[in-house]
Amino acid sequence: MPDIAKMLWPRAVAVVGASNDTHGLRGRVLQVMRGHAFEGRIYPVSRSEAVVQGLKAYPSVADLPERVDLAVLIIPARFVPGELEKCGQAGVRAAAILASGFAEERSEAGADMQAEIRAIAQRYDMAVAGPNAEGFANLAARLCPTFSPAVEGDGRPLMPPGAEGRGQIAVIAQSGGMGFAFFDRGRDKGLPFRYVVTTGNEACLETFDFVDHMLDEGRTDVFLLLLEDIKSAVTFRRVAERALRLGKPLIVGKIGQSEAGSRAVASHTAALAGSPAAYRAVFARYGVIEGRDLDEMLDLAAAFLAFRDRLPSGRRVGIVTASGGGGGWLADACAAAELEVPPLDAETRAKINVHLPSYGTSQNPVDVTAQAVFKVGYTEFARLVAGSPNIDGVMVVSSTRRPRAIEAEREKLIAFGQETKKPLFFWSYTIPAAQSVAIFSEAGVPLLTNMHNCARAMRALADYAAARTRPPFDIAKSAVDASARDAVAAALAKARGVLCEWEARPLLLRYGVAGGETGALARSADEAEAAARKFGRPVALKVQSPDIPHKTEAEAVALHVANPQDVRAAFARVLNGAAQHAPGARILGVLVQPMAPPGREMILGVHRDPTFGPLLMVGLGGVLVEALGDVALAPVPLSHAQARALLASLKGAALLDRHRGAPAADVEALVELMARLSLFAADQADAVAAIDLNPVIVHEQGQGVSIVDALLVKPDAP
After folding, report:
1. Residue among 230, 187, 183 at smallest CA distance from 207
2. Lower Cβ count inside 10 Å, N or C end of the chain?
3. What is the pLDDT of residue 475?
């Protein structure tokens, strides 16, 4: 891995393409850099100017008086490969390419130049960011090689006072403008940023390479990531798992959640947006927190910065308010975020009641009234509520427009912010004064202006706490021996296209993916009738053909055939349906199978995502899966606990419980099936594009499951 420290912490920097014209991007980069007290040396490189913005310029990096660590390339795209080659020859170890006109233009020439950049970087082991990036900012070093107006010198410090001794935030974004927008908007909230890095097309270094480096460095506590795609799922998994272990939250905004958003991604950075559901599934596995917009992500960062080491033990919230309406409104926001607002215990209420007038209430929300706040203060009421064993976090509804009242509580707020073991949030329903923001920043207490973000932040803290106690790397060991794995792998290697149920079931069975009777394959009406007589109960007849994956649509299925003498007619009927639907289809025969007992219909399957590989899917089966879209995904393999949690995440999960006289379904048998199928998918990942078990009938508790139909699709299927 190239040395990213040479990029972020250089001793000397060359600005290739620097200009005296500060109205253009080439001049603004140098101007912005010189506007801050960076302690290293800065060298303009220009073929046409001897002096640039008061600094001696050099015609080439080879002519510089010393070897620089970092080159910032702000030149036309066609010149970038040649200049990058010169940088490599001169011993430059890192480069930030701010030029555009590469793979994002979707032209052959642009893609070729981007490939050339990658090859040069690999040849010289250079840490290269971009192209099509907006540079970066190391706020701690006061180094800002970017043209972003967010870091133009305006007299304010790049980091708030005292930030070096507190937790810090890193922003890493594939979009340059949006990356620096986090800093610009978060600065007014008093948030301490350590880095803003824009990665552009990620021809060489990707987002999670930077996260990995910053985890090594150990000075970044919260990450704000804006992603258009993930280049390497392997890198993502390794780094995300590591961040979760270390308790360093990854808060991610994923662009491309809609059709229009996906088009924008493709045209912007030549990235494939990927399936939104797949991203959500993988993010959930690794405790990644998804954000919906800039302000929400900044508020989440503020919450984690303050309480990443004091995570809540649950979702119960105590609300303190001087406005009855504000407290009720925030309680509604908490309910929408699936938080609880339970009544406080009698002992805590008694302590609060001492301070309340007759028209106040200590239930929850705790309406302390403006009169009591004036006498006692918000902080003291927050401390009393936090002492209740019934709650896991405290939210205070307040006005921070007049800083005098906040200043009066300053010392108490700072002390309580440091000592509380439960998360504490203030929601200001008025616009906070700058002095109020500074006091809350000093106290390390999040001051939010959006009540939904307040609730969302508490929920995110609780979910992250749960993710850390259920680490994603706690995967059940394979119960399949090597000989079974090898036998299945060999069979799949010989198979082509689509494997129908008769072909797929024996392979799945080697992994214990079983349920119901396999049945018998009949190649004649006589064989079909004989099989039906042997089973002695109503049967189903299903054409087996790799060319007819959807047998019902082809009218190639006969169900509930009760009499053996009717089997012959059913046999002819399903074959005729297949012939009408797909003339020339390869027919293996007709599967004669006993009808499964009744139960709840589910769908279970595997889909191989192009970025993350196999994902297991579970949902309500039959027509409900298409009508309601109630499905859940998770990366494979899954332990039994993970399979159980995935099943519980379905909106219709309650249908598996006892209801309206129907007995509870055999959830544990379904969980076992899910875990075993996930193991099959993980072991045979390269040989399987998709698996469908639809429907799976879940019988009453203790009676297991029946796989009614199975289909396996190879990657080479048309």
Report:
1. 230
2. C
3. 45
